[in-house]
Amino acid sequence: xxxxxxxxxxxxxxxxxxxxxxxxxxxxxxxxxxxxxxxxxxxxxxxxxxxxxxxxxxxxxxxxxxxxxxxxxxxxxxxxxxxxxxxxxxxxxxxxxxxxxxxxxxxxxxxxxxxxxxxxxxxxxxxxxxxxxxxxxxxxxxxxxxxxxxxxxxxxxxx
Length: 159
What we know:
CATH architecture: Alpha-Beta Complex
Distance between the termini: 44 Å
Shape: globular
Helix content: 25-40%
């Protein structure tokens, strides 16, 4: 019998099942906190890791999600221009309070509140990608089209 998933990972597994997704949440023996760690654990290229980065909109104080290819760094000025509002870094307390996840395990769905989601256009070039599933050791596999459907995100260049 498989071990039970941690509560945050189970929440993502339940959301995926409710959306008709066939992929399952996998709890890795090692940390998948960084894109490089996740790629090693998943046996894929770093570019196939869909890392969820939470930023903080300066004027509205709302969270902003960027789902970036693990190979890319987010150009915050570009995201601010698309959003129409200056953005800054979000600390760990803000991320947990506003998304329900700890940094290093933020999933691209299942947030505590509605928030804008921007999807890195570079993720669309891969047949499959891997995303965090709520903990620093849990992940799930999906396609870029599934990511777009699940998040309702806006595709943009983030670099």
